[in-house]
Amino acid sequence: MIIGLQRFAVIGLICWLSACAVRPPVTTPWASPFDLMGRVLVSGGERAFSAQLRWEHNAMESRLWLMSPLGQTLAQLQVDAQGVILRNAQQQDYRATSVESLTEQALGWILPWTYLQYWVTAAVVPNLPTTALIHDPQGRLLGLEQGGWRIAYDYSGQDILPRRLELRRGTQLIRFMVDTWQVEAG
Questions:
Q1: For 134-142, what is the mean pLDDT?
Q2: Quick one: CA torsion of 9, 89, 120, 8, rounded to 10 degrees?
């Protein structure tokens, strides 16, 4: 039911970034398909929501599942050239031309899906102004501000892809914890 997604609707992005050396933005789009599994925590105002997630992404389509701790699908987003379908746990479908418009209409907030496809892989969204770009000594992206969002990253050991991602805008916070990454050469 869409009410269950209202909890997820609290999603917002980005964490406060400390000052550091600023490098020119990396504008190479993420070209490789990915499949990740992990968890998401969304909070804002007095609401909070958490779920397990799986996200399959490639050049043709993207599918994201939100699941209960026991693996029951709470909601599924499918995004492709025809638009967006959100299917809730009661198998009701909601359609729109973009995730942003669907979440704004159905939930009262905008999930920055177009940007998130890049941010989740620690890539800067091409052709979108970027500030506060911060890298670690290995050159991995630790934080940035883009599109009104603040994004912070955390890595495990020498991993190239982040294990944790925090997005913040105003009182909205979205936290992704990635347990497994599968990446194909693109």
A1: 95
A2: 20
Percent of the chain that is helix, strand, coil (3-state, to 5): 10, 45, 40
- 71-107 pLDDT per residue, tens: 999 889 999 888 899 898 889 998 988 888 887 666 5
Q: What architecture (CATH level 2) is domain 2-183?
A: Clam (2.50)
Exposed / middle / buried, residue 29 (Cβ in 10 Å: 0-12, 13-18, 19+): middle
Q: How far apart are CA 67 and CA 52, in angstroms?
A: 5
- For residue 183, the model assigns a pLDDT of 85
Angstrom CA distances, 152 to 78, 165, 172, stand at 26, 6, 14
**pTM of the predicted model as reported, rounded to 2 decimal places:** 0.77
Q: Which two tokens stand for residue 82?
A: 């025809």
Residue 95, φ and ψ in degrees, nearest 5: -120, 150
Per domain, the residue ranges of the chain are 2-183
